[in-house]
Recover the amino acids of this structure.
């Protein structure tokens, strides 16, 4: 790691530790057999649409996965659209229980031998307040699995749940003195009064903020804007993710991913698990 990059990473970590949920940092668990190295930047968009939800992403070493949820008759079902709802595909069965089993099997970690918290981004598709209240009940049943907030302090667990989607969840979460989840902010939240202990992640639609889609060089003004966003978020201990980035394999996608890494964007969004894994491994080499 270059000296300037290392200094930036240490500064970001210090800010995160001071204000809320720390950015994921790779650390080898002492005395534990080390498994494959997780890819901290890799985010599995619409993870549940893969043949093996969660497990395909973990096999490709992703450290962030996304699940859309609907509250239906008191249960949280996972699907992209209402027409796809299936009572057997619950958040508990696809994500919560498998993660709990894996953490037990790996003695406290999602990835064996690596002390890093996996991000579970939960996108609420039904009314936010009621859906979050049921989500809160389900998360609390898994004691010790999730990063928690209690009375101003954050305790990092093997999995960090971040709530996105319907914004009506925000006021309910903000009023809680104890939580097992955190809030996914938007660029409009950058610089707000909410600390990183509430909003550890800033996400937004790439195409609503940038015109460049990977063809030719990125315009200088857009590069400066991107780096300014990341710098402002990192100064507050917050991570950055963009959705709706190009996801068709080819030089344009590679160019855009490379620009995101150069700007130190924390999560790269994709449906192509193997493609992003190969790209990040090649970049690291």
């Amino acid at each position: 790691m270059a000296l300037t990059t290392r200094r930036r990473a240490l500064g970001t970590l210090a800010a995160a530790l001071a204000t809320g949920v720390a950015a994921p940092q790779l650390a080898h668990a002492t005395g534990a057999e080390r498994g494959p190295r997780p890819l901290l930047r890799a985010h599995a968009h619409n993870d549940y649409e893969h043949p093996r939800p969660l497990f395909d992403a973990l096999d490709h070493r992703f450290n962030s996965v996304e699940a859309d949820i609907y509250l239906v008759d008191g249960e949280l079902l996972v699907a992209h659209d209402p027409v796809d709802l299936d009572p057997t595909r619950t958040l508990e069965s696809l994500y919560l229980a498998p993660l709990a089993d894996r953490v037990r099997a790996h003695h406290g970690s999602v990835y064996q031998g690596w002390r890093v918290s996996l991000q579970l981004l939960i996108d609420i598709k039904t009314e936010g307040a009621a859906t979050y209240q049921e989500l809160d009940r389900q998360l609390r049943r898994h004691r010790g699995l999730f990063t928690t907030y209690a009375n101003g302090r954050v305790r990092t667990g093997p999995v960090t749940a971040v709530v996105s989607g319907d914004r009506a969840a925000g006021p309910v979460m903000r009023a809680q003195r104890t939580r097992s989840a955190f809030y996914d902010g938007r660029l409009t939240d950058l610089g707000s009064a909410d600390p990183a202990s509430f909003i550890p992640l800033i996400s937004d639609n790439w195409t609503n903020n940038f015109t460049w889609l990977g063809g030719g060089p990125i315009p200088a003004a857009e590069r400066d804007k991107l780096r300014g966003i990341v710098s402002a978020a990192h100064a507050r201990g917050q991570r950055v993710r963009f959705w709706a980035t190009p996801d068709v394999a080819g030089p344009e996608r590679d160019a855009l991913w490379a620009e995101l890494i150069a700007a130190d964007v924390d999560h790269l969004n994709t449906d192509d698990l193997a493609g992003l894994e190969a790209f990040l491994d090649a970049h690291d080499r």
Summary: The chain has a mean pLDDT of 92.
